[in-house]
Amino acid sequence: MRLINIPIVFLVFGVGPEVFAMASNTKRDSTALIEQVIKSPPKYQKEFGSHLKQAFQTHYLQIYGSVVCLFLILMAHGGIINRVHYFEPRNPIKFVGNDGKNSFTLKELIGKKIPTLRDQAMCLLNPFLFTGDLQTMYAGVRTFHSRDQLYFGRQILRMRDGGSAALDQVISSAKFRSAKPESCDIPEGQKKLYLGKSTRYFTKKELLEQDGQQSKRPIVLALHGLSGSSAEPYCRCLMNPLFNKEHFDCFVLNARGCGGVNITTPSLFCALWTEDVREAVKVLRQRYPGRPIFAVGFSMGSIILTNYLAQEGDKSGIDFAVTLACIWDLRASSNRLESHFLSGNLYSPRMTKNLLELIANQKDELSLSREFKKSYSRENIRKMDRLSHFDDNFTSKMFGFSCADEYYCYASPIIRMNNIRTPLLNINSEDDPVAGGFDVGALPVEKASFNPYITMITTTHGGHLGWFKPNNVRWYTEPVSQLMAELYSEVYNCSAGNIQVDKHSLPADIPISEGKLVMKTFKS
Fold it and tell me: What domains can you pick out in the chain, each with its CATH number?
């Protein structure tokens, strides 16, 4: 395979004419050149090596310069300078300070305290990850086991329909080691006693001690991405500073079937299933009354979180939310994901494989569903290499939709984002190959501007949950944790967090009745 044209490279680097002549005689075939050098007498081999060494010694500046130029060209084609674009609502809400007198918008707070999130703010990303695809692939292959090490105590939440999800709480290493896994009772419906090196079940005594704790520490509830868990690096990197530096009590809701949770009903999760979030918020409100609750969603977790906020309106029980890499329009993002060569042949099959492994682990319980048994066959599984194929056969059927396309239409937060009445900061990368960018209409900044509660931030680069800086620390970790800490300090520390909103600035209700558009009447 011809990887490079050696004579041209030698000419650029200023290699001696004898060597260049030898290279030219090979008809510019690099393989033949190497064979010719190997077969030549030792004298010519030595001469070749001498000229090559001399060329590098004499022209090392040209060599390094050429490498740098090539690197700069590649970076220019992609990008390592990340720029923030801040989209403020037309008439944003105002937070009332703890003193009850001063009020400020989110943009004013960010401008004063969080310069990294200001409009047109710039930062340097990892120069070797100069495209959204490279950022995304790196996020998928690196586990960062030695970084952001956290320990979790787990409680199983039983839902009204009989299903089970896990609420993992970040705890200190000392508390984690204070009880051995053998002393923890396996909750009803669960099979695993050992949950890994950093997660164990809470003992009954520990759970009783949590009820009614007298503390003012703020709470953050995180929702992980598709088939993820509390162990995901993109989640741990944010929980770490919030817990260790900002002194939040941090929780992660593991979806049904994820993170070692055994399902107890023949159903998993989907983007529109918000009952488990509702139950988690209810548990936290009852256990820790009077404490502010923040929420953060990652990718799939962002979709579920925004749908929940829209469904609940001003009764969400959440004081402030952040969504990262949210997929606002599932149809647009799905088309983008599967129509591009790299994402269609790498990301979509990889995500599908993870989901197939998940249902294989939960097959016994899922087989109680007639719809699941119809789709779960060896032949069908073998042909399933796209995320839309999985959603067509399993997700849509599990939740009563006819196909993936119908599921995507109903589950897209873009259709109900007008109903959000919780302060929300959304952050998306414009080169996200999974969620999509402005080119496919996946970032509804214009529609969001009509809702005073929603602030949209886009970044020019970062991929899907990447945003890796040169030291491989994710860009969003510091500003998001600082913003939550500042909001707690300025707004929620001494009060329930009052918000001022101009009622006339809220999005108007679309005049639809029984599925029909109703004409407004005008008085003469």
Answer: 6-73 (no CATH), 106-329+419-507 (3.40.50.1820), 341-411 (no CATH)
